Amino acid sequence: xxxxxxxxxxxxxxxxxxxxxxxxxxxxxxxxxxxxxxxxxxxxxxxxxxxxxxxxxxxxxxxxxxxxxxxxxxxxxxxxxxxxxxxxxxxxxxxxxxxxxxxxxxxxxxxxxxxxxxxxxxxxx
Length: 125
Hints:
The protein is α+β, with helices and mostly antiparallel strands and about 120 residues long. It has helices at about 20-25, 85-100, 105-120, and strands spanning about 15, 35, 40-50, 60-70, 70-85. The protein contains three helices and five strands, in the order βαββββαα. Helix 2 (about 85-100) runs antiparallel to helix 3 (about 105-120). The protein has one domain. It is globular, with a radius of gyration of 14 Å. The chain starts with 13 loop residues before the first strand and ends with a helix. About 35% of the residues are buried. The model has no long low-confidence stretch (mean pLDDT about 85). A five-stranded antiparallel β-sheet has the order 1-2-3-4-5, sandwiched between helices.
């Protein structure tokens, strides 16, 4: 992994939601991120794996597949837990890129391919 999160471009069909209320209020001050796909109510998010309490491992981050959108998060399916926000951000990018790359497949197949690619891209914590 050579690109830092600030240097790596988000794939064209995806957009990062600025300060997504549904997860920021719950997990702040650590910086979660939500990425939504342009024409579907799906996304991928990264957020701390544990609440922000004194005994928590604050270096573990969770990547999840999201059904719904920023205003109506219907379901979040955990994909993996990694050590460090950079690794979670990298896995999110790999998920988005794989989802885009396999556009000739069905939506469900693309999601499964993207989840597998994200898992293969980083070591789980």
